[in-house]
Write a structure and sequence with these properties.
The complex is a heterodimer.
Chain A lengths: L15 E3 L6 E3 L9 E2 L6 E3 L5 H21 L1 E7 L2 E6 H5 L8 H30 L8 H11 L5 H15 L4 E4 L1 H19 L2 H9 L5
Antiparallel strand pairs in A: 1-2, 3-4, 5-6, 5-7
Chain B lengths: L2 E3 L6 E3 L19 H21 L3 E5 L3 E4 L1 H10 L3 H30 L6 H14 L5 H12 L1 E2 L3 E5 L2 H18 L3 H13 L1
Antiparallel strand pairs in B: 1-2, 3-4, 3-6, 5-6
Helix pairs in contact in B: 1-3, 1-6, 2-3, 3-4, 3-6
The chains are: A alpha+beta, B alpha+beta.
């Protein structure tokens, strides 16, 4: 094991941080606001506190929550070919497979585009609001945050947004296609999801869940 | 060192601890079942990938004709219409990237056993790319979903999803699970072994 740490386990384990990707061991030193602690071996970001990150994340999460709900039900594309019109919402798109054996696929699609991102936003709010307000953590906050982390790769809203673009180009010569309000909501949603992932410092969240401030 | 670390929240614990006391994640120092799971999901993914290419992905009904196109024939058709750019994107997203992913995961899993094939940094970089890019293959499924819900213009034109869409989605999901099952710490283990012997 490559160590930034020489003296064998003489220090308490709470002073040690281990890179989850490559198992390199480091002496825990919390970086200043805006700085990052990066694993020297595999360059994974270990700790990255940001100034007032908690409040920003809560604000972003609220916005995301509203946008997801809105984007789900407003029409996001409409099509017009020789007088035949049709407009669909994300909900319709997710449930496009709902006939017969493809039902499973419909559920999976709806889950990946809407339900998983929604669950993650709700959990983030549930976990972070008490931390930022210096209240004791919510019940089951730890389990909830773990679930949210496990769901991270399965939240595919931004991929769906790119899928929209590809679909548009594919049928552009077949019919006139227009954007509905939900399309722009989805565009905003993508930016917010990326921003939220950038702001959140997982280590800080775990740390404050473990050592809640007394109040 | 005599410690074991949680891969979820980076907390260190004495060796032999089963469950992380901070986040409750199950802990193993080295997950030796990991490779088995990687290969199991890998084979499932490959099995689903074959019908995904053989069955039609889209059924297009226009005024006079009914078309069924697979992934590749759809791309070829687009190229014949002159849309080379999109044909290229579709081929890249649904043929090249999935195949490259199968190859990359297999390479990583094999290279854990015999380590002299590429540097650790190269392999770790590869692992991160596979993990990052895996989700993007879903784009094809979303395009099918959008098209088949949008293009429902009664007699003029309708598009319906074909059976390949389900297999393709399953294939993507299984390869994502396969990549997640891979314990990236194994990449660095042989370095520790070398370090000890020198």
């Amino acid at each position: 094991m490559k160590d930034a740490l020489d003296h064998e386990t003489s220090m308490p384990l709470s002073d040690i941080i281990v890179c989850p990707k490559c198992d390199a061991v480091y002496h825990l030193k919390i970086p200043k606001m805006g700085e990052k602690a990066i694993c020297q071996q595999c360059h994974t970001v270990l700790i990255a506190p940001r100034h007032k990150a908690g409040l920003k994340i809560i604000a972003i999460s609220f916005a995301t929550f509203i946008l997801i709900i809105g984007a789900a039900f407003f029409p996001f594309l409409d099509i017009d070919a020789a007088g035949n019109k049709n407009s669909v919402s994300v909900m319709d798109a997710a449930l496009a497979f709902s006939s017969g054996p493809l039902l499973m696929l419909a559920l999976a699609t709806a889950g990946l585009i809407l339900i998983v991102p929604l669950i993650r936003v709700v959990i983030t709010l549930y976990v972070l609001v008490p931390i930022v307000l210096d209240l004791p953590p919510s019940r089951y906050a730890i389990q909830a945050f773990r679930l949210s982390e496990a769901l991270r790769p399965w939240s595919m809203a931004e991929i769906f947004a790119l899928g929209c673009a590809v679909a548009l180009v594919k049928i552009a010569d077949l019919a006139t296609v227009g954007f509905g309000p939900a399309f722009w909501m989805f565009g905003g949603l993508v930016v917010l999801v990326v921003a939220q992932d950038n702001y959140i410092c997982r280590w800080s969240v775990w740390n404050s869940l473990e050592n809640p401030k007394k109040s | 060192m005599g410690i074991v670390a949680c891969t979820r929240c980076t907390k260190a614990w004495p060796f032999g601890t089963q469950i992380c006391g901070r986040c409750g994640h199950k802990m193993v120092s080295r997950d030796f079942g990991s490779l088995q799971r990687v290969w199991a999901f890998w084979v499932m993914g490959l099995m689903c990938y074959v019908p995904a290419n053989l069955y039609p992905m889209l059924q297009t009904k226009t005024l006079f004709q009914k078309d069924e196109s697979t992934i590749i024939s759809g791309a070829v058709e687009l190229a014949q219409h002159g849309a080379f750019g999109i044909a290229f994107i579709i081929l890249l997203a649904s043929v090249v990237i999935p195949l490259a992913k199968f190859w990359a995961i297999a390479f990583l899993a094999i290279s854990v056993k015999s380590s002299k094939m590429a540097s650790n940094h190269a392999r770790h970089f590869m692992y991160e790319i596979v993990e990052y890019i895996g989700r993007w293959s879903m784009i094809d499924i979303f395009v099918v979903a959008i098209l088949s819900s949008l293009v429902q213009l009664k007699t003029l034109a309708t598009i319906n999803p074909g059976p390949a869409s389900m297999f393709f989605a399953l294939s993507v999901i299984f390869t994502m699970l396969s990549a997640q099952a891979f314990d990236s710490r194994m990449i660095w283990d042989d370095q520790a072994r070398d370090g000890d012997s020198v």
